[in-house]
Amino acid sequence: MSSIKDLELQQQQQETPPSDLSDPSDSHDSSSPSSSNSSSLHPIPTPHWGKLIWHTIICILVCAHIAAFANYLVYRIYVYSKHPGELARRPWLIVLTTCEVIYFASSVISAADLVLPPRIWRPRQSLSLNWEELPTVDIFLPCCKEPTDVPEDSIQAALAMDYPKHQFRVLVLDDGGDDELKRYCEELESACVKYLRRKKIPGVPHNFKCGNLNYGLEHSDAEFVVMMDADMILHPSFLKTLLPHIVKDPKVSFVQIPQSFYNLPVGDPLNDACGFGYERVMIHRDTFGAAPCVGTGAIFRRKHLDEIGGFQPMSITEDTMTAFKLFNQGFKSVYLNRKLQIGLTPWTFEGYIKQRQRWCQGAIQQFSATWREMLGPKSKLSLVLKVSFFWHTGYYFIAIVNLVMLLLFIVCLALHLDLMIGTSHEARRVIIQLAIFLIFWRLSWISVWLGLPQSIQSRNRDESHFWWMTPFFLQTIYKSIFSYSSTFTFTPTSSIDRVAAQAKFTKQPALIKFFLVKLKHVKVHIIYILLVLAVVAYRISWVAKQRGRNCSHDFYVIAMSFFLLSTCTHMLVPIVYILCPPSYKPGQRKGLLHYKEKVPHFVEGDHLPKWHWSAMFYEAIANVVVVIFWVAALVIAVTKADRQWCKTGAV
């Protein structure tokens, strides 16, 4: 934690003249001193040519990866077309190629977020506002059964905002009926705080957090409203940093900043920080004013919300639903990569999973409710926004492809099913094309992460998350398809954490039963790992006995085994997390914050993910070993060196 002296120095550096409200400089936005007598736009600084050059290199690698992937698929399909009889006898190859085509499509869509020119070398013009121009703002703090001290800290931080007290209020929107919180707000005796509790009529949809926010709109007459979560603590400069970017441009509906967490476990094993989304995707989408809302740390223009009927209740993720509704009206957003809010990530694994599944449910609901409106002929969304809207939901359905691919490889290994047809020359060319594609994919994947906080660790956490979350997303997709109405339920993460934490104090059963209970959320992961280990051991021993009688077949056995074993390392992540949970506990929350006169304070950027040595294990498995394997395969295939030990020269 930063010392009080450091904190005071940081605040002094961020102070502005009393006659203006300006946007401090940062890595995303540049500013210079401005006149306090007028509203002005500062000159655009010199472009960051180094970052422009690096972005060009990334684009080249990403395009090379896409081109190599396409080349591999085209040649593979060409070989199939030459040998239709063999293909008919191996229908599993059709399934494999279908999965590969879907992965290719997802790669093309994902590449759009990487090749879009980020605003990083065209910084936003720094804005300032006259003191007389400062608009009114209401900060919405929706609560629902969190421990009372959590929203209390959020209220204190909001009241400490560096903004005229008569120009903003904190509206505490209590959906949990917390009488203690109500007394706390009343005892503050501040005109800046208003406690609100809506009445919920049984049988009438109350729309969870969205309904709570709309209840706040009914009691607000401010020009701008801030959406935040109950656990989020805002930096004193939050309003003066964000407001100029929405006040000066009437087409901007909201300004969004990233989330940071002060209880983030060392090493960020579950990828809570979402570094790629905040440090890459959001910055690139901001180029076209298409960065979505993430549910907290956003300031909205009240007039635009009124035009669409308030926050949108058609999905339990009202943040992105409302954002796309505004985009479809021709409005835009601004994303500032400023760490001006810190909050709590779920304390328990169960809370984390339920949160992610809720996001998946919300995305599916959003698509189901509005796909005609967003993608139809009357849509006002740009092509970038249409792709973004589609992929916001489509990403979760890749879990189905993951399942099919993994099961297919296991079955092919266990039943000795061949993955190659055609002549030895064609088999060799397929291996060459596959190796080139995978090498370029890995190089492009590494390049896009460079420059991010803890880039090696974050990259590996993100890749692991892609695999180990597959069973949980599949569960949500199944529920959404076969029991759609049941997905419109909402349990606050804090309530899930509380129940999970209380369960730990119950009397533990016998050892075996204990592990079954403790690992109940990862039973699929354990079964998968044991199954893969058994099948791989069986096939590798079989290949060893054959001693190179069919090199093309042996290569695919080794490649599939290597791939399945690498996914096993990713599936270990939640198992290890449950058996060795982070040291931070809910009771330590206040100790993770720095207080000054009972008000929580933090230094911007002080809560980035911290390094853990385990990231190097995944770096070795997922990057170093993978690249070495496929480079070796490429060299052997090109030089035909395999013939030295292959008895039949099958390749």
From TrEMBL:
Q: Where in the cell is it found?
A: Membrane
What InterPro entries does its record include? Glycosyltr_2/OpgH_subfam, Nucleotide-diphossugar_trans
**Sorted alphabetically, which Pfam families does this protein's record hold?**
Glyco_tranf_2_3
Annotated TM spans: 52-72, 92-116, 395-417, 429-452, 525-543, 555-579, 616-638
Keyword annotations of the record = Glycosyltransferase, Membrane, Transferase, Transmembrane, Transmembrane helix
Query: What topology in the membrane does the UniProt record assign?
Result: Multi-pass membrane protein
A GO MF label: hexosyltransferase activity
UniProt key word Transmembrane helix: yes
Positions with biased composition (Low complexity): 9-42
Question: Which segments carry the region annotation Disordered?
Answer: 1-42
| GO BP field | cellulose biosynthetic process
Q: What GO CC annotations are associated with the protein?
A: membrane
- Whether Amino-acid biosynthesis counts among this entry's keywords is no
Major subcellular location class:
membrane
* Xref: PANTHER family: CELLULOSE SYNTHASE CATALYTIC SUBUNIT A [UDP-FORMING] (PTHR43867)
Its recorded name reads Glycosyltransferase, CAZy family GT2
Q: Which organism is it from?
A: Selaginella moellendorffii (Spikemoss)
